[in-house]
Amino acid sequence: MNDKSSPRKFSRRKFVQGVSTTIIGSYVLTPGVSKISEKLEAETKEIASGKKPLNLIVNKVRYELMISPETTLAEVLRNELKLTGTKLICNHGECGGCTVLLNGEAIYSCQMLALDAGEKEVTTIEGLLTGEELHPIQKAFVEHDGLQCGYCTPGQIIAAQAILLKNSQPSKEEILTGMSGNLCRCAAYPNILKSVLAAAGYLTEGTNR
Amino acid sequence: MAVKIIKSKNFVETDFVESLAEVPVEEYKPWPENDKLKIVGKPVSRIDAYEKVSGTASYTTDKFLPNMVYGKILRSPHPNAILKNLNTEKAEKLEGVLKILSFKNCPEISWYYDTSLLFDKNLRYQGDEVACVAAISERIALEALKLIEVEYETLPFVTTASEAMMSESPKVHGWGNILDGKPDTYVRGDVEKGFNEADQIIEEEFNTQVVVHNPTEVHCSLANWDDDKLTIWDSTQAIFSVRDTVAASLKIPSSKVRVIKKFMGGGFGSKLEAGKHTIMAALISRDIGKPVFISVDRKEMNLAVGNRPDSNQKLKIGVKKDGTITALSHISYGSVGAYPDSAGCSWPLKTIYLCPNVKTEEYSVLTNSGRSRAMRAPGHVQGTFALEAIIDDAAEKIGMDPLEFRLKNYAETDQVFNVPYTSKKLKDAYLKGAEIIRWKRRNKTPGSQNSEVKNGIGMATQIWWGGGGPPAYAALKLNRDSSINVFAGSQDLGTGTYTFIAQVAAEVLEIPVEKIKVDIGDTDFPYCPLSGGSMTAPSVAPAIRDAAEQMKGKLISAAAAILNLPEEELMYSQGLVSSIKEKDKKISITEIVSKTRNRELITNGAREKNPDGYATNSFGVQFADVSVDTLTGKVKVNKIAAAYDIGRTLNPKTLYNQIHGGIIQGLGYALFEERLLDRKTGKVLTTNLHSYKIPTIKDAPEIEIAIVSQFDPLNSSIGVKGVGEPAIIPTAAAIGNAVYNAIGKRIRSLPITPDKIIKALYS
Amino acid sequence: MKFEYHQPKNLKEAGKYLLLNNSIPFSGGTDILALMKDGIVNPDHVVNLKTIDGLSDIKFETGKGLSIGALVKIKEISQNQMIAENFPVLKIAASEIASPQLRNMGTVGGNLCQRPRCMYFRDDFDCIRKGGGTCYAFEGFNKYHCIIGGGPCYIVHPSDLAVALLALDAAVIIYSDGKQKQIPIDDFYILPESDAMSETILKPGEFVTGIFIPELKSEARSTYFKFKERDVWDFAIVSVAAIIRKNNGIIEWGSFAFGGVAPKPWLDNAFNKSIAGIRVASGSIENVVTKAFDNAQPLQLNSYKIPLVRNILRRVITQLSA
Predict the structure, then answer these.
(1) For position A89, which CATH number holds?
(2) What is the pLDDT of residue A17?
């Protein structure tokens, strides 16, 4: 995972008990419901409607949610957690805009049921930042202009992160292969390659054309 | 500064558009070469890059408002049908459905140049809008679409221009399938005479495919009413045209509509018009009193929001043995889909090469398919592919080197308007590009290499407009902390608008780029043109300069009052106004602003007028180095050398990036991309990003770029020409010519896919 | 898209759920989820096989062969050292699949059971494979369709792994009626003439649990050539899996399988027979190759696949016998 220590492991919540205990760094999201009794009622209703409990660890924060099984990970990230850095471009696993890390590996969050991501560690583009400080890969994309419209950029950066997590000294060919699952319609590809090369330490500053 | 109102005529995409514009009376001296400037022309990192790389940039798809609801559109599954009946009862009963809009309850709102309505009972292509459902979630809206019962009367249809041209074919509209009933015709000189004078006459036919923009962010709008004021967040290249279309459609004053677009995930021409979905969102939102977000999905992106029309082109060229072109003729047919648009593609042929006798006929033909829209250099991309192929073939026929042939027929002036260019450095571009690609390596005899994988080199020329012009305005506010806000109603599509605006203001005021905060993409700001036609930088940058220069003047004037010195004795430099005579008499921006009564200074800048009696065009050339695997028919583009005259480079980082993008999109057009339509059913087959193949990072070739221009000395005081469209125009043609050079067989239809090469080589 | 999601703990439970009406097995989801979003497949019950233990192993037993569990990810196959050394054809095929993300998500079982990419099947055409009466491709856009084995449907099977496994003479292990059984991969896939709505023999309640590949003689050389239009992330226009054993300049034995040409991974026994005993340096290879697919029946737009597959054969044989 990241350079920081791995997040705490949380035990699966017994959702039938209804009331959740507050854990620092975790959220229970039951949209539109505030009071505990209402919440309980809402959850019961949700279970009856086929909703299932999901424990999701995103960017080192645990979220406890009730979701319909058909909900994809991307939908949960964007609609429930409002982590909108993850983009839905094709929603069919054909573009890479929704790329996130799942236990350190790049996957398409639009083609994964959210329930399948339960108890696994999800890292989105927002999770790369330390406070307001950009991750070195993000900085490289700024410096080498590895983007144009920026819409596919979060996915590109996560894909780059997946490469560098596995191999801090990838070859150019390995970078190209690793980035080949992320389309960029603006076709900023030469600069994307340059950005990843720079993030891997192959380029020095100033070679920015 | 004094201003005046003039009539301004600008080339916007494919048409001249005339408008009234306020322009400065006096004009600034053009800046010198970039190496004498401090910020403009330097590789400044995008000022909006932080938001984009951190995931915090808020695109229209990322906007959430309290209580917002989601709209989804039901579209016709048939290429031609009449909507007989619509029953929404079941759908309305679905829990969570708030509103269903259709012809039954929607006012008649004219669409497509009065050829259709927002909801029309005549459905003329697969994708035409039938109804729109708004619900508390997208899933419920989608579920509701399935519950709407529709009765269609299906009608015969036409899918290709050639079919549509036949008299017995079904008519897309009552009035016939050829737009305006006749071709768009242009004649110069006497082509018959020209062909008679030729030693060689070559005639060829070319076909290009329909391609789709497919920007990453889908078309979408979020509409919200506050009393009688409507705010729309829209993924658009043209906030003002969205505002005006929405206002006209809803019959409300433009001043009641505000359109906002801070970030957008690409457009490439598809987002230059207001979408039907935008109007629907506004109507439903007004009705139910909640914000409404409507987005299309990837399939709809490939059906219903525009495309580059196809073309069938018949070209004829007459040449003398010495290489002189004596005549050129061009007949083109392009299908614009079900509603009026332009599919003409003759322009490059009219202007690139010196030729006294030219005749062109451009047919824009209606078919029962998704309507075309401007797509990155509309017409020029198709036209250049065919023109540059026949130019190569003509050169070969008379035994002349293709580059020499092009130089021989170099046009020094604009032949259509018979005026000089404000600048033209195409010759330099030719020579530079040829040097980079090492032109001499090309096969003297095409296809002569004796290997399984054959290499080839080809070239193609590009011409585009891109001089921009008035009207374009900007407001500049100088704050007490000496920071600056720039407000301009322009758009950044990923092209770097935010950044060059900051650079231009910083250059004039000699302060760091970080001091400038740029606010664009809002119709509450001063008007700027739509972002298309490669006209953003050349239109907007001079207005920024004007606002900043005026600010400098204001500072000097204020300093004069404060210091009790005559203005002539003062000079401005790096945030300080100081006396020329007495060095210790000086005052900083901060002090000046804090002493002025309103604690801030505001100026309004305007784009100056274009010079009379000139044409401004961008010029460029691309050279392609390709390998063709003769066993599989696979084309690999190894390298593209691109040399351009685009006036002044504002920012090499974003400029080179944009050129890369154009080239790689051009490569997709040349080799993979094609919207496929099933002839029997009239339905689109390529409705996703697997079947519609756009290039990946592995398909990207090595690209080497040379900018041969310093600045255009006459077009504006900045001297920049746009590069968005020039970047894509010659790529497919250069690749096509390189493939020919490699295998000795001319592939006359795009895309150049392996099956076509195999057929050419093995049958 | 609305379904009940079942998370069985063992094979038996999974088998039970899969006998429910309108039930489908689910693992990586990379293909089936897209089909569900598009309403091409509309299950009421989705049975997640990922919760079953023991289907995620790669095991090699000397003298016997290689077992791969159905839940093994494509990426693991492409990166497994033992597979790279002993079965290069399989490694290359796995590396050529889709994109890195999809290789991280997709499983062996899912890859073998993925549905065809025919654009008519994938869109709202009521085609034969979806129970309709027409194959729209037959007289429509059939550039990517089959040149052999077609009718009344003309798909090509999209799996790369299946082609490599066919050349390797592998067996598909399926769970059926309370037990696991091995089916030769050539029998696992079926042609549209026997059932145009299914690509495999799998019946309700059955699912793939793994594959078994018999050991190859160590001197065998193998490769996989996948020809696609786009450089990466594309399905095969034509692919060839090839294994040969050469001795003294003579190809003693060869096993070839083809993708992108037929509705199932294609084996041409006559071709495999004819390649055996050929001297590499002679012109005999050319004689054999030019006869390959001479019984093909191309459609209007796909006859180019015949020279293409022959050319790929030339290249692959040259490469392996070098």
Answers:
(1) 3.10.20.30
(2) 30
Interface of C with B (CB under 8 A): 1, 117, 119-120, 122-125, 136, 139-141, 143, 227, 229-235, 237, 301-302, 304, 307-308, 311-312, 314-315
Same domain, A118 and A75: yes
Yes or no, beta carbons of C100 and A181 under 8 Å apart: yes
Q: B693 vs C139: CB contact, 8 Å cut-off?
A: no
Closest C-alpha to C265, from C221, C317, C226: C226
> B672–C230: do the CB atoms touch at under 8 Å?
yes
- Show residues of chain B in contact with C231, CB under 8 Å: 636, 696, 698-699
pTM (predicted TM-score): 0.96
Tell the residue number behind the tokens 């309709």, with chain if given.
Answer: C132
**pLDDT tens profile B193-234:** 999 999 999 999 999 999 999 999 999 999 999 999 999 999
Min Cα separation A204/chain B (Å): 15
Beta-carbon neighbour count of residue B50 at 10 Å?
Answer: 16
d(CA B730, CA B345): 13
Nearest Cα residue in chain B from A192: B697
B634 touches chain C (CB under 8 A): yes
| Cβ distance of C230 and B696 shorter than 8 Å | yes
Distance from CA of A109 to the nearest CA of C (A): 10
Chains in contact with C, where contact means 3 or more Cβ–Cβ distances below 8 Å, are: A, B
> Please, what are the domains in chain B?
3-60+469-606 (3.30.365.10), 63-155+219-295 (3.30.365.10), 307-467+613-762 (3.30.365.10)
Tell me the per-residue pLDDT of B461-514, one tens digit each, with 9 for 90 and over: 999 999 999 999 999 999 988 899 999 999 999 999 999 999 999 999 999 999
The last residue of a domain, from among A112, A127, A142:
A127
What is the C-alpha separation between C194 and C199, in angstroms, rounded?
10
Nearest to B748 by CA among B455, B337, B444, B388: B388
Strand partners, B205: B314
Give whole-number Cα distances, B136 to A111, B67, B301, B500, C82, in Å: 23, 8, 23, 41, 53
Tell me how far apart the alpha carbons of residues A109 and C266 are, in angstroms, rounded to a whole number. 34
Q: Which of C79, C99, C103, C114 to mutate to test the interface with A (most CBs of A within 10 A)?
A: C99
Instruction: Report chain C residues whose CB lies below 8 A from the CB of B699.
Output: 230-232
CB contacts of A70 in chain C (<8 Å) are 1-3, 36
Q: Which residues of B touch C139 (CB under 8 A)?
A: 680
Domains and CATH numbers, chain C: 58-114+155-214 (3.30.465.10), 221-321 (3.30.390.50)
Question: Would you say residue A24 has pLDDT above 60?
Answer: no
Predicted local distance difference test score (pLDDT) of residue A37: 56
Q: Is A163 an interface residue toward B (CB < 8 Å)?
A: no
Domain tally, chain A: 2
Q: What is the DSSP string of C125-160?
A: --BGGGT-SB-TTTTS--TTS-SSS-SS-------H
CB B286 within 8 A of CB B226: no
The Cα–Cα gap between A68 and C36 comes to 15
Q: Which segments of B479-525 are extended strands (E)? A: 484-488, 516-520
Q: Which domain holds residue A189?
A: 129-208
Which residues fall within 8 angstroms of residue B684, CB to CB, at 6 or more apart? B126, B127, B302, B303, B369, B370, B675, B676, B677, B678
| The token pair that represents B117 in the structure block | 């309505």
ipTM (interface predicted TM): 0.97
For strands B292-295 and B69-75, give the pairing: parallel
Residue A191 maps to a domain: yes
* Rounded CA separation B421/B29 (Å): 19
Q: Is residue A27 over pLDDT 80? A: no
